[in-house]
Amino acid sequence: NIKSGKSIRKGVYMSDEKIIGSCFCGAVQLEVKGEPTAMLYCHCKDCQAWSAGPINSASLWNPDLLEVTKGQEYIETFNKTEHSHRKFCKKCGGHLMNEHPGLKLIDIYAVILNGFSYKPTIHIHYESKTVSVKDGLPKFKDMPEELGGSGATMPE
To answer: CB under 8 Å to 81, separation ≥6 — which residues?
Structure first.
């Protein structure tokens, strides 16, 4: 299952050191420690539209491992659906994280974490891709079963 991460955590990053991240302007700063539950690429239409990019570099964490150390008052939330509560800095608009209440996980955008060793193990929502990626990682049509999806995969 996702909590043990049997099929999506191989090669996962592990550290007891704090990893620091911030929004685009630096008004919001956060720290995360421990290890993510999963690291993956998301190709869903919502991530594409939100980020204005073809792929989201997701790192899913237990929310208890996250601490906002500066600028909590600048964090704003937008949710198009109840599945994703997207957090951003209302000062600069920089994207920070995405709470997934149903999964009880938070996606801290890997690119905002300084020095983080991002090692994705899968692609999700590959059926919605706008860019093909040939990296040898499994490509899920929607999501793995442990994330509530069909588990169906697609060719690269």
So the answer is: 46
Query: Among all chains, which residue has been given the structure tokens 């994705």?
Result: 120
Nearest to 61 by CA among 7, 141, 17, 5: 5
Per DSSP, the three-state class of 27 is: coil
Nearest to 77 by CA among 61, 59, 99, 56: 99
Q: Side chain identity at 54, as an amino acid letter? A: P
Q: Is 146 helix (H, G, I), strand (E, B) or coil?
A: helix
Q: Are 2 and 103 in contact (CB under 8 A)?
A: yes
Residues 54, 146, 119, CA angle at the centre, nearest 5°?
A: 50
The structure tokens 């509560």 sit at 85
52/56 Cα distance (integer angstroms): 10
Decide if 2 contacts 37 (C-beta within 8 A). yes
| pLDDT tens for each residue of 78-105 | 999 999 999 999 999 999 999 999 999 9
Tell me the DSSP string of 97-115.
EEEETTTTEEEE-GGGBTT
34 token code pair = 């421990």
Query: What is the model's pTM?
Result: 0.86
Backbone φ, ψ for residue 126 (5° rounding) = -65, -20
